[in-house]
Design goal:
alpha+beta; 11-stranded antiparallel beta sheet; 45% strand; globular; 3 helices
């Protein structure tokens, strides 16, 4: 009985560290898998995850209150920087690119993360660099493009 209680306490403490933990997000990125033969330009931002390269399509930057400061969008001409005041001038800008005015993020458990109203499947956590890689359901698309999201947190 004593061993059962001890096992329960240890497992609770191990899961508590990553369960229901609110995260202060600094940056959210959406990237797509680079297939073989795709030419990457010098102006493209790329990161590697599990020996695969991903092209960054969008980056959102948030302040300490979780409000969107500015965003960067990938285009054929390079990345366009959109400050908050310029985004507000264009009707439906945030909706068209899947951006949010604010961000709320929680680790549900070791395998799931909640970003605003979306639940994601965690693919990896780099605790040293404070990065979480994840996929969300809306990433499933008819074009078979593989997306990966990442957040950088404080």
């Amino acid at each position: 009985m004593r061993n059962m209680i001890l096992l329960f306490v240890i497992s609770f403490m191990a899961n508590y560290n990553l369960s229901n933990k609110k995260i202060q997000v600094v940056e959210r990125t959406e990237a797509m898998l680079i297939n073989k033969g795709y030419v990457v330009l010098n102006s493209d931002s790329v990161f590697e995850f599990q020996n695969k390269k991903y092209l960054i399509k969008t980056r959102e930057f948030f302040d300490e209150n979780g409000e969107l400061n500015h965003a960067m969008l990938w285009s054929e001409m390079g990345y366009e920087d959109w400050p908050k005041k310029n985004m507000a001038k264009i009707k439906h800008f945030l909706d068209d690119y899947g951006f949010s005015h604010f961000i709320n993020a929680w680790l549900i458990d070791n395998q799931h993360i909640k970003i605003n109203s979306n639940t994601g499947l965690i693919r990896g956590i780099d605790e040293k660099r404070r990065i979480i890689y994840y996929n969300i359901d809306r990433d499933k698309n008819p074009n078979k493009i593989v997306y990966l999201h990442r957040i950088i947190y404080k």
